[in-house]
Amino acid sequence: TAFLLTLPVLSYLGVEAYRRVQSATVVHALEKAEEAVEQADYLYSCGETEKLYQLLLQYKDSDDAEFLWRLARASRDLSLLAHIAADEKKRLTFEAFEYAKKALEKNEACFAAHKWYAVCLSDIGDYEGVKVKIGNSYIIKEHLQRAIELNPKDATSIHILGYWCFAFAELAWYQRKVAAMIFASPPTATYEEALAFFLKAEEVDPNFYSKNLLMLGKSYMSLKDEGNAVLWLRKARDYPPHTEEDKEVKCNTVRKNYSTNNILAR
């Protein structure tokens, strides 16, 4: 009888020990994941694109959207590097979209998953043609709006929505014809709408992105407001370049043929 009475106690102690081990394992795994995310964000801030990609590639089968959207961004950033061959660029572009798609499937409430899904969907349109790219335009806009809804303080999502508006404001006539063939009500936008988003992004996070400064200048130019165009284009020109994109923006603003009036040369 005494033996029988000890069984439940021993069993209980065994279960408790198992639970403690399992709990410690979960805590360790969470701490390791947090460390990996911190390391990834540090590498991103330093512009170490290739190291970042290799780090995050270890988590490509993860169920955590925080790893997956970062991997989508890293794949995309890697595809944009100058030394990447055309076929590798295409592979990385489609790979980035798959990671963004998976991130969204794992966590619909993750604002960054919506943002990078929209960006990557737009990117693959460059390979699938104007018709597909325009056909995806409403989906892209919806995901950007959802990203902003989930995180109104993310300046990048606001900027990209501004870029979406600018692109449709300056759509070429043949692209408008394609849009009219696809949609009963084709997407439309104005330079004023684009400008409002770029200004909002700057308000949320001042001087966060060289391209936002450039797009503010271009929006004001399109609206024939030369004074404000000069102000923002000079800011874009003088922005300290940290990334390849920053360097490209700087080049765009110092070219003499950037504007017919050469407004920056004044």
TrEMBL record:
Cellular location(s): Cytoplasm, Cytoskeleton
Cell inner membrane recorded as keyword: no
Pfam families: RMD1-3
GO cellular component terms listed in the entry, alphabetical order: mitochondrion; mitotic spindle pole; spindle microtubule
InterPro entries named in the record: RMD1-3_a_helical_rpt, TPR-like_helical_dom_sf
This protein's UniProt keywords: Cytoplasm, Cytoskeleton, Repeat, Signal, TPR repeat
Any one GO molecular-function label of the UniProt entry: microtubule binding
Principal cellular location given in the protein's record: cytoplasm
Signal peptide coordinates: 1-17
Family label: Belongs to the RMDN family.
Known partners and oligomeric status: Interacts with microtubules.
Protein name, per record: Regulator of microtubule dynamics protein 1
